[in-house]
Amino acid sequence: MQINGAALGFAVAAIAGLTLAFIGHPAVQLPPPAPAAVASSGATAFVLKSVSVDLPISTEVFPGGATAETINANCLSCHSAGMVLTQPNLTKAAWHGIVDKMIHAYKAPVDAGEMAAIVDYLATTKGSK
């Protein structure tokens, strides 16, 4: 059996045409289908949207003059003095744990050498009596 080149070309074109007719042209992209609603679990859909938050401005600093310089320089970028000073009185070990968490877990930009001064200030000002 001998295959004619023209017949082969026609067959390939016909197959390509049928394929495009069934699956569509690759350049035509339909939007993705909407997600199916979950009816049996009782979950509700939600939409995320951007919001703008205005944070309060505080000019309050930690009291204590020179002894508060380190905590004012390092902690006021994230915390207000009022927020910190209304925390419960804690032991020095508890304050050490909190400051350590701020530095290592939350990546507070505090030099390791300044951690002791911050903990000492907090233990003196807000330490357990």
Sheet having the most strands: none
Which blocks of ≥5 consecutive residues have pLDDT under 50?
A: none
Rg, alpha carbons: 33 Å
Supply the number of helical segments.
5
User: What's the total number of strands?
Assistant: 0
Mean pLDDT rating: 84
Helix content estimate: 40-55%
**What amount of the residues lies in strands?**
under 5%
Structural classification: mainly alpha
- SSE sequence, one letter per element: HHHHH
Ends: how far apart? 103 Å
Brief account:
This protein has 129 residues and is mainly alpha-helical. The chain has helices at residues 5-23, 69-75, 81-85, 92-104, 115-126.
Structure, described:
The chain has 129 residues and is mostly helical. 43% of the residues lie in helices and 0% in strands. Helix 4 packs across helix 5 (115-126). The longest helix has 19 residues, at 5-23. The termini are far apart. The mean pLDDT is 84.
Topology:
Layout (H helix, E strand, L loop, with lengths): L4 H19 L45 H7 L5 H5 L6 H13 L10 H12 L3
Helix pairs in contact: 4-5
Q: Characteristics of this structure?
A:
129 residues, mainly alpha, 5 helices, 0% strand
